[in-house]
Amino acid sequence: MKTDILRELKEELKEEEVAFWRLKRYYPPLASMKEKEIMSYLHLYERKELVAYVKRLLVVEEGQKAKRTQKGCCCLDAMGIPKNLYLDRSDALRVREMLEKEQGIALKIYTCPREQGWHLSKV
Ligand SMILES: [Zn+2]
């Protein structure tokens, strides 16, 4: 029980770290800012809010990228965020490799039950 809580906490911290990192990469002007400065810049109060903020940002970014070449489906992830549909399995493989390296998580590829394409999901 205790180890579960610790693990959860560790995952949360890791997620927050990744969120800051990705945000800085996305908005280079933030790269030289301290975490606190970024938070106040974005009018956020909790680190958790930042994680959600970055997730939304990435969904928009990925969505714009996807729109150019792909048609989406209406599958949602556990947080209710639309999933990316990869029309090409090699795209899914490439993104999986990147995310696994970046976030230290294991992902699996599966076929979309609604449209022709693939999704990624945490194992
Ligand atoms: Zn789908």
Notes on the protein architecture:
This protein is mainly α. It folds into 2 domains: 69 residues, no CATH class; 53 residues, no CATH class. Helices cover 57% and strands 8% of the residues. It contains 4 helices and 2 strands; from the N terminus they run ααααββ. It has a two-stranded antiparallel ribbon with strand order 1-2. Helix 1 crosses helix 3. The two termini are 21 Å apart.
Essential attributes:
single chain; 123 residues; mainly alpha; two-stranded antiparallel ribbon; 4 helices; 57% helix; globular; binds zinc ion
Cofactors and ligands: zinc ion
Low-confidence stretches at least 5 residues in length (pLDDT < 50)?
Answer: none
Distance between the termini: 21 Å
Proportion of residues in β-strands: 5-15%
Largest sheet: 2 strands, antiparallel
Helix content: 55-70%
Give the topology, please:
Blueprint: H1 2-26, H2 35-41, H3 47-69, H4 89-103, E1 107-111, E2 118-122
Antiparallel strand pairs: 1-2
This protein binds zinc ion (ZN).
Précis, in short:
The chain has 123 residues and is mainly α. It has four helices and two strands; from the N terminus they run ααααββ. 57% of the residues lie in helices and 8% in strands.
